[in-house]
Specification:
alpha+beta; 5 helices; Sufe protein. Chain: A; 2 domains; rod-shaped; five-stranded antiparallel β-sheet
Length: 156
């Protein structure tokens, strides 16, 4: 007897279900395409991605030194993340995401709400010990790592 004869409908259902599940697993395991330009930009040496620009200004007779330091580029599943910090008088005064995933509309949507939250958290905490943003786990992880790298370079 043939395995898919009509008198054995349960066997057909099991095989169809197994084929559907296998197809879904294969489909969900696909990774998005990244452009070669991103991969070549990430091969910079750490010294090339880290820069500091000291500047001085005067406030009420006190000299304030401000440094801007760019952290390491952290490669995440969805793309690179890199953060630049500004430190003035030993305090973190500004955090900017220099590079972050923005290849597709979903990346742009996620990062439009995640990056401002991460910035607020970093400025409030004055460190890289910040909460992750729900729905932006990979970006949050890369942001924290790059932020820590920049803070280490700035001496905080």
């Amino acid at each position: 007897m043939h395995a898919l004869k009509k008198n054995r409908p349960l066997r057909r259902i099991v095989l169809a279900s197994a084929a559907t599940v296998s197809g879904m697993v294969l489909l969900l395991s696909l990774k998005p395409h990244t452009t070669p330009a991103l991969a070549t930009a990430d091969t910079k040496s750490p010294s090339a991605s880290s820069s500091s620009a000291p500047s001085s200004g005067s406030t009420a007779g006190t000299k304030t030194v401000s440094r801007t330091v760019t952290g390491d580029t952290v490669q995440t599943r969805w793309g690179p993340v890199q953060v630049r910090v500004t430190v003035r008088s030993g305090k973190l005064t500004d955090v900017t995401a220099v590079r972050y995933p923005q290849d597709n509309p979903r990346d742009q949507e996620i990062n439009s709400y995640a990056l401002p939250q991460l910035r607020r958290e970093a400025l409030a905490a004055q460190s890289a010990r910040i909460d992750m943003v729900s729905g932006a786990t990979y970006t949050s992880t890369g942001y924290r790592q790059s932020l820590q790298s920049a803070l280490d370079s700035a001496g905080l």
